[in-house]
């Protein structure tokens, strides 16, 4: 189905099952431990061996000698994989650095060997006996230093210039010129990257934990120089991703190569202390923002430049993208500068671009509101725009930002905020309120599904879509149930298998809208088949309560499959509505903090998010996404930081003991309000995404609340105690 005109009324609009806060259908499996994750596929194939990944001990240089004798002689060792015996490999399309390094090393903890043994403990033990000598080369590891040496706009992403920024800024009566920094961050999902691989002759099967089955399928086949038909990938349950599992990573490749070398199935989990340096991370940024406004509070000049670093072939952290769309202002300059760094590859982490970009922009907006003496909520409302500020005549499909802010302010008690920072005190606590705008674009990609109706009236959906803890199983079941007019318990959903139709996968908060739209498309076809089988007119047939009704006739749905199951498959493809309309999601984030006047301990006391993100397919799972994201935003504001050793070139705190994320005791009462919205330009589902929106802007709201509490403006994340004392 091609989607190129705004959606009209369709069966989803009945909202009998879609839009209901139903429980996760995979919930009971998850809590009983009956949903096997990749490393738990004990029954999938017999004779599984265990791999332990050896990571490079230097950031840049060459291996001069590798002594594997002691490791080979250790108990239980079956084989040791290195580039010496891996066979020829191509580089996957989506990997900047080789997943198996040697002799050339391009980043710290790059995998250089996989030790395979009968047991996990034996593999771990033997791996400690691998001796490696290196010739170390000097590398670049310090973003501030790289920036000082000067990097300009890259030709792939040139600056965007509208009007005359320099002149407008110089003439603006009120100006702000401030620089903000955001640190490297690691995804820290609960389940590490893990894979089990088994060969049958020239055919390979992999059970893994990956957000994008179709991408992994393509890249694994390419890397191993196999045809796609020779490779099958399954990723039915994913214990969190946040972008870490968008791409083929070392666990998948090494399990496949290791299994070929060992001649038996091999499973590999990346050890937790390896993940931060071995895989991708969110790259640090240095962001300079200049704002100019008239005394009336209207922005006349907006500039946002962002510096980040990456390995050869890696891309910039696009922290300026929201600044091109969020506020009106006639004179604009935005651009990214990419420095070469020899750290691990920087790549997508939840809301890449907007998440770090808003940490800077929304503090700058708070600072500007203060300079202007205007309430921060009113300042945003004053500078709202209903059109793309860079491309006039191009409207937002929906933009309820003002409603988000007004409802948020009313619901949170914003009028209790003292405009004078540092003036509200409760005993030893300084109390402050802060807010920020949340913004994230709505992306779409084609997405396919297959649906089958059997003689029992059971509807089975198959798509390679993944559920990374987000609720995909449930909203896909809701979609099929709504379309086919059956109860939720009559629907079976099977996900995460490359033998199913390719979906858009779980990324960029596009998964919910696009994968359900693919299921919708397949169901439209299945309804036609059903109507035909029952001799009814498809155009006026009503599917409800397990029955199909047309005119005077009412026939059980299952009758259509009496002589054999009916199967339909389709893919939703998107036309140019994304070009004609700017599709984005919006939020108002409100936070109350208390800061200990003596120790500077920060406690977040209350959080509220008001979101406008199209139709909410399941308010319960959507709310879970948003409160999880708000928690992550709290972490980004106060805790999360990969500390770079700028001499040796690696992230020092590379485990969950050293990399701090919020725990339950850090998280206060969180409230989420979804505005009523349907976006007919996004898909037949009229939905958009919330999983990343929930994060965007949260950290800035915390920073602004801290300023309101203390009068201290921190522009350097995370806001740890030392920066407040
Ligand atoms: Mo998201 S960073 O595209 O998983």
TrEMBL record:
It holds the Pfam family MoCoBD_1. Keywords: Oxidoreductase. InterPro entries: Ald_Oxase/Xan_DH_a/b (IPR000674), Ald_Oxase/xanthine_DH-like (IPR016208), AldOxase/xan_DH_MoCoBD1 (IPR008274), AldOxase/xan_DH_MoCoBD2 (IPR046867), PaoC-like (IPR049648). The keyword NADP does not apply. The keyword Repeat does not apply. One of its GO terms (molecular function) is carboxylate reductase activity. It is an enzyme of class 1 (oxidoreductase). Its EC number is 1.2.99.6. Coiled coil: none annotated. Residues 32-138 form the Aldehyde oxidase/xanthine dehydrogenase a/b hammerhead domain. NCBIfam families: peri_hyde_PaoC. PANTHER family: ALDEHYDE OXIDOREDUCTASE MOLYBDENUM-BINDING SUBUNIT PAOC, XANTHINE DEHYDROGENASE. This is Aldehyde oxidoreductase molybdenum-binding subunit PaoC. The lineage of its organism: Bacteria, Pseudomonadati, Pseudomonadota, Alphaproteobacteria, Acetobacterales. The gene is paoC.
């Amino acid at each position: 189905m091609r989607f190129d005109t705004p959606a009209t009324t369709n069966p989803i609009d009945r909202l009998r099952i879609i839009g209901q806060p139903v429980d996760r259908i995979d919930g009971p499996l998850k809590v009983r431990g009956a949903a096997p994750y990749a490393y738990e596929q004990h029954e999938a194939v017999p004779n599984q061996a265990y791999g332990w990944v050896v990571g490079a001990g230097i950031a840049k240089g060459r291996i001069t000698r590798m002594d594997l004798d002691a490791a080979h002689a250790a108990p239980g060792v079956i084989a040791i994989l290195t580039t010496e015996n891996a066979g020829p490999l191509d580089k996957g399309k989506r990997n900047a650095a080789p997943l198996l390094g040697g002799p050339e090393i391009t980043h710290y903890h790059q995998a250089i060997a996989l030790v395979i043994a009968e047991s996990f403990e034996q593999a771990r033990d033997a791996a400690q006996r691998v001796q490696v000598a290196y010739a170390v080369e000097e590398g670049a590891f310090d973003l501030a230093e790289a920036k000082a040496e000067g990097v300009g706009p890259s030709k792939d992403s040139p600056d965007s210039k509208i009007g005359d920024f320099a002149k407008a800024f110089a003439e603006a009566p009120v100006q702000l010129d401030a620089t903000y920094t955001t640190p490297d961050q690691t995804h820290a999902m609960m389940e590490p990257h893990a894979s089990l691989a088994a060969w049958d002759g020239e055919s390979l099967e992999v059970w893994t934990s990956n957000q994008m089955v179709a991408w992994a399928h393509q890249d694994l086949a390419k890397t191993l120089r196999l045809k796609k038909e020779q490779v099958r990938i399954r990723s039915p349950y994913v214990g969190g991703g946040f972008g870490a599992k968008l791409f083929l990573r070392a666990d998948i490749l090494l399990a496949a190569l290791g299994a070929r070398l060992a001649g038996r199935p091999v499973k590999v989990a990346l050890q937790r202390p390896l993940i931060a340096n071995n895989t991708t991370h969110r790259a640090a940024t240095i962001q300079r923002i200049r704002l100019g406004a008239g005394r009336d509070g209207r922005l006349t000049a907006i500039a946002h430049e962002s510096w980040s670093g990456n390995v050869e072939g890696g891309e910039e952290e696009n922290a300026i993208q929201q600044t091109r769309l969020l506020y009106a202002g006639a004179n604009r300059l935005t651009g990214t500068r990419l420095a070469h760094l020899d750290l691990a590859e920087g790549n997508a982490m939840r809301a890449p671009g907007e998440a770090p970009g808003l940490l800077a922009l929304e503090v700058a907006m708070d600072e500007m509101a203060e300079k202007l003496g205007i309430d921060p909520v009113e300042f945003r409302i004053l500078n709202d725009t209903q059109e793309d500020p860079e491309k006039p005549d191009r409207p937002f499909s929906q933009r309820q930002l003002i409603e988000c802010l007004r409802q948020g302010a009313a619901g949170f008690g914003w009028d209790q905020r003292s405009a004078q920072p540092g003036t509200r005190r409760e005993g030893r606590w300084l109390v402050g309120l802060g807010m920020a705008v949340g913004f994230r674009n709505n992306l779409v990609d084609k997405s396919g599904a297959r649906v089958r109706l059997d003689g029992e009236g059971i509807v089975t959906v198959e798509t390679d879509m993944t559920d990374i803890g987000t609720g995909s199983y449930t909203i896909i079941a809701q979609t099929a149930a709504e379309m086919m007019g059956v109860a939720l318990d009559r629907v079976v959903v099977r996900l995460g298998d490359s033998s199913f139709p390719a979906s858009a996968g779980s990324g960029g908060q596009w998964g919910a809208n696009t994968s359900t739209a693919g299921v919708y498309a397949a169901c439209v076809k299945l309804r036609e088949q059903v109507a035909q089988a029952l001799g009814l007119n498809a155009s006026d047939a009503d599917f409800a309560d397990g029955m199909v009704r047309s005119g005077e006739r009412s026939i059980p749905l299952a009758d259509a499959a009496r002589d054999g199951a009916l199967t339909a498959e389709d893919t939703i493809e998107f036309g140019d509505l994304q070009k004609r309309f700017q599709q984005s999601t919006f939020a108002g984030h409100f936070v109350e903090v208390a800061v200990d006047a003596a120790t500077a301990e920060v406690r977040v006391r209350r959080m509220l998010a008001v979101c406008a993100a199209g139709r909410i397919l399941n308010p319960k799972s959507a709310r879970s996404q948003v409160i999880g994201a708000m928690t992550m935003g709290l972490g980004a504001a106060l805790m999360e930081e990969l500390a770079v050793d700028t001499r040796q070139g690696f992230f020092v705190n590379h485990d969950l003991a050293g990399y701090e994320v919020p725990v339950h005791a850090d998280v206060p009462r969180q409230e989420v309000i979804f505005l009523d919205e349907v976006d007919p330009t996004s898909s037949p589902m009229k939905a958009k995404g919330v999983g990343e929106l929930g994060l965007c802007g949260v950290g800035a709201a915390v920073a602004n609340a801290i300023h309101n509490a203390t009068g201290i403006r921190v522009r350097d994340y995370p806001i740890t105690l030392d920066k407040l004392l």
